[in-house]
Write a sequence for this structure.
């Protein structure tokens, strides 16, 4: 080596000793600083000795100031002195020192969130740990579980309509807490201002709307009745069918494709008065969750929507209740403790009375000698008992019975017709129509540990429809007489059980899993008929082709998973099977939801769901009625299934006043049934129902947007839906695609609630949707002779020619409803008056279209039947 090269090498080594030879934990360093942040010390070591530090500013805080004098001190000892006071760990990775937060031990805090005044559990309350900047929500039984760092000493608990609460946590161990929240208005001032509610951008679940009791109670009323289902109809993506009807058609699905749960038990007909009113007294409903898509794996059995209704549990502290009377119905509700803070009850009843009013009118005019009795009413009864066996065990018993009755009795006074030969000497007739639901359930909640919660349920549900007919008469000339009597009834029952587990291993995972078993029992077609004055053998038959049992089994698992700080997933699977008539159908239904948080706290969400449905609704081609029959999948008709994808964005404003959602969806449906053109729901003698239906497919797609104001003296929402819903069946419409009967291209909903001082509240809603598709003939031909399609004279009737199904779109439907409520609070009770006007500008919306004839002008024209004009109502209520 030359002298020059040796000189250059020596200079390089002297100037950059660490770079050349590296460093280790025994390297001696010199650092002198006075009142400087740790970050500055790291910078000196990097600059002077080439020791690079790597860390995240969000996890590692180097702002603490230090004063240090270290001469030729070993690197490892120096770093221990610097970082140990802040519990900062360090490790060597390659040529870098990586700084990490200390491995802080964790603990799990769990418990129940309750209403302080009543002791009722609160569903969906938010529990937030400020130290960890993470939180959770209570499940449908008010239970929460949150794994956080060991030194967490406080939680912020909040729920809409309640005062936020700062809950102190004991210093050591896992704890089961019972946290109580005060309703807003019961305290004079807000002490805590913190995270009040879970925001849309913090929820992976999409296509879900939560209705609280206060939102339902504020809506304008039809004939004085607050209605849960009618409130759901005012949401984007939900249609009610004909104006005034109470059905639900969600994202292009049929009325049979909605899973309606009352405290976890399914019901099969959720309306009174042919759909005008919903099944439940709204005063006993605590919360209502509507899932239009992105269904969690714990739900199954329907393909279009889930309506999950939670009933009140009963006040654990004191007795109170309410009662109201309106133009068409009266109701009451009472609840309170059986054993204070241990056992509570809730009892509610409702009864309508239009028959009492109509009977009084009918009896006022009996000039023709015709007498009778008319009954048309509904009633429902709710009862619930809630008992706490221990801090970890609670049992609920619940019961519901609701029924509709329509009865017409008519008698003819024989003195009126005795001098008119050939006329009836005496005649009487009776017709009765009714339907009803019965549900019962027992549920046991158990806490196995701070992270694991379970619910075991046994439930029973029955839907029945019945008719009764009787006709008696005597002819004066021949003495001929007849005494005819007939009945028909149809019954469907479900009985089963389920076990659900809620497991919260850590803040990044929320796991649910469970098993469900259901026995379906179908008994339609039970008919009998006899004429007591005829020698003909009476008819008494149970249609064995429709009497079927089916066993449904399901397993599910789902996990809400935080993959990264801004990426979340909800992953689940629902596996089910159905054993019927010796055949076993099965399906594996994946569920996937994704959420990515964008800048400015906007969340992009996407979801894919696969749903199966093992039962069908056999209905006529007209409107859905209580006479429609529930039937199972069979050897000929496979289960329904659907696939839905959805994509959307959502955000709740920082002040929690506004929420905005925009969603697009596409859904395909298979194995749908439709009656053939010439058949109704009653099968020809000797044939099965599944021989008289055609099986096809359906599609629906569209977009929904909703802007909601949730806080302040003015609240409400505006929603718009653009949608398409289509069907295709072999043998119908030449096998071509046609619009579904409830395909509404445009749907607009506007809801406003305005507080006017302390005592007054005004509400208004406006609804618009495009006309309903209907099928009309495109031409008519005379059948022969002088007869014509509009000529009522004898002859061969005319013939209508049709080209396509639902080839004409009816008139657009729109309506405004308004209501105003006056409240007065006394010391121990309150009273209120509500005045509501349904269809305030008297829009003549069509309920049914008819083809009418004008024989004189030799023309036919389309007419419409309107059943709900402007309808004012007044209701008086008291609470005590």
């Amino acid at each position: 080596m030359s002298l020059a090269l040796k000189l250059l090498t020596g200079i390089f080594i002297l100037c950059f000793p660490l770079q050349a030879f590296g460093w280790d934990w025994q390297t001696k360093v010199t650092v002198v600083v006075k009142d400087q942040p740790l970050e500055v010390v790291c910078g000196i070591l990097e600059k002077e000795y080439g020791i690079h530090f790597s860390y995240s500013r969000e996890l590692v805080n180097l702002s603490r100031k230090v004063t240090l004098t270290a001469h030729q001190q070993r690197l490892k000892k120096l770093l221990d002195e610097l970082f140990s006071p802040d519990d900062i760990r360090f490790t060597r990775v390659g040529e870098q020192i990586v700084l990490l937060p200390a491995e802080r031990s964790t603990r799990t805090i769990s418990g129940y969130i309750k209403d302080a005044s009543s002791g009722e559990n609160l569903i969906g309350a938010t529990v937030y740990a400020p130290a960890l900047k993470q939180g959770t929500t209570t499940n449908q039984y008010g239970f929460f579980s949150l794994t956080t760092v060991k030194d967490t000493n406080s939680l912020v608990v909040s729920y809409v309509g309640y005062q936020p609460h700062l809950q102190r946590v004991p210093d050591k161990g896992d704890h089961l807490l019972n946290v109580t929240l005060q309703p807003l208005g019961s305290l004079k001032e807000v002490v805590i201002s913190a995270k009040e509610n879970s925001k849309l951008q913090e929820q992976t679940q999409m296509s879900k709307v939560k209705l609280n009791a206060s939102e339902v109670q504020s809506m304008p009323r039809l004939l004085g009745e607050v209605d849960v289902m009618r409130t759901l109809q005012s949401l984007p993506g939900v249609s009610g069918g004909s104006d005034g009807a109470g059905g639900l058609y969600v994202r292009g699905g049929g009325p049979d494709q909605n899973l309606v749960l009352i405290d976890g038990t399914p019901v099969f007909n959720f309306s009174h008065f042919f759909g005008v009113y919903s099944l439940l007294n709204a005063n006993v409903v605590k919360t209502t969750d509507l899932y239009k898509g992105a269904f969690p794996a714990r739900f199954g059995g329907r393909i279009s929507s889930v309506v999950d209704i939670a009933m009140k549990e009963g006040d654990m502290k004191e007795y109170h209740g309410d009662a109201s009377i309106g133009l068409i119905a009266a109701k009451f509700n009472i609840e309170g403790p059986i054993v204070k803070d241990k056992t509570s009850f809730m009892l509610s009843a409702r009864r309508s009375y239009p028959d009492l009013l109509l009977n009084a009118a009918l009896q006022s005019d009996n000039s023709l000698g015709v007498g009778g009795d008319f009954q048309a009413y509904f009633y429902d009864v709710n009862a619930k008992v809630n008992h706490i066996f221990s801090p970890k065990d609670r049992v609920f018993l619940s019961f519901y019975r609701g029924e509709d009755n329509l009865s017409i009795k008519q008698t003819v006074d024989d003195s009126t017709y005795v001098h008119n030969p050939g006329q009836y000497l005496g005649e009487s007739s009776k017709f009765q129509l009714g339907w009803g639901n019965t549900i019962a359930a027992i549920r046991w909640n158990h806490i196995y540990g701070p992270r694991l919660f379970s619910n075991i349920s046994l439930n029973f549900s029955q839907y029945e429809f019945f008719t009764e007919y009787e006709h008696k008469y005597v002819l004066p000339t021949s003495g001929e007489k007849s005494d005819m009597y007939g009945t028909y009834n149809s019954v469907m029952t479900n009985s089963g059980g389920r076990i659900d587990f809620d497991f919260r291993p850590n803040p990044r995972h929320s796991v649910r899993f469970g098993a469900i078993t259901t026995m379906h029992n179908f008994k339609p077609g039970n008919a009998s008929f006899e004429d007591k004055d005829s020698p003909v053998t009476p008819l008494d038959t149970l249609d064995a082709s429709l009497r079927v049992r089916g066993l449904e089994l399901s397993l599910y698992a789902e996990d809400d998973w935080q993959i990264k700080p801004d990426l979340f997933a909800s992953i689940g699977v629902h596996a089910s099977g159905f054993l019927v008539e010796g055949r076993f159908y099965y399906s594996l239904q994946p569920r996937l939801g994704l959420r990515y948080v964008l800048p400015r706290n906007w969340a992009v969400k996407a979801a894919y769901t696969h749903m199966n449905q093992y039962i069908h609704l056999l209905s006529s081609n007209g409107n859905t009625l209580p006479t429609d029959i529930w039937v199972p999948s069979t050897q000929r008709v496979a289960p329904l299934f659907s696939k839905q994808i959805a994509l959307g964005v959502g955000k709740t404003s920082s002040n929690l006043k506004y929420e905005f959602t925009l969603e697009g969806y596409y859904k395909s449906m298979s194995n749908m049934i439709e009656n053939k053109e010439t058949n109704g729901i009653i099968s020809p003698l000797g044939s099965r129902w599944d021989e008289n239906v055609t099986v096809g497919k359906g599609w629906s797609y569209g977009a929904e947007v909703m802007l909601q104001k949730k806080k302040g003296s003015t609240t409400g929402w505006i929603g718009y839906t653009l949608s398409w819903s289509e069907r295709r069946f072999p043998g119908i419409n030449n096998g071509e695609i046609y619009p579904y009967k409830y395909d509404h291209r445009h749907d607009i909903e506007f809801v406003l609630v305005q507080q006017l001082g302390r005592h007054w509240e005004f509400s208004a809603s406006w609804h618009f949707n495009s006309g309903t598709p209907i099928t009309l003939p495109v031409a008519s031909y005379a059948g022969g002779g002088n007869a014509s399609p509009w000529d009522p004279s004898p002859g061969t009737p005319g013939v209508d020619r049709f080209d396509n199904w639902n080839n004409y779109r009816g008139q657009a439907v729109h309506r405004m409803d308004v209501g105003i409520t006056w409240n007065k609070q006394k010391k121990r009770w309150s009273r209120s008056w509500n005045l509501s006007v349904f269809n305030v500008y008297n829009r003549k919306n069509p309920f049914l279209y008819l083809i009418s004839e004008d024989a004189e002008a030799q023309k036919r024209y389309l007419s419409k039947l309107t059943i709900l004009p402007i309808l004012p109502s007044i209701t008086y209520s008291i609470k005590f």
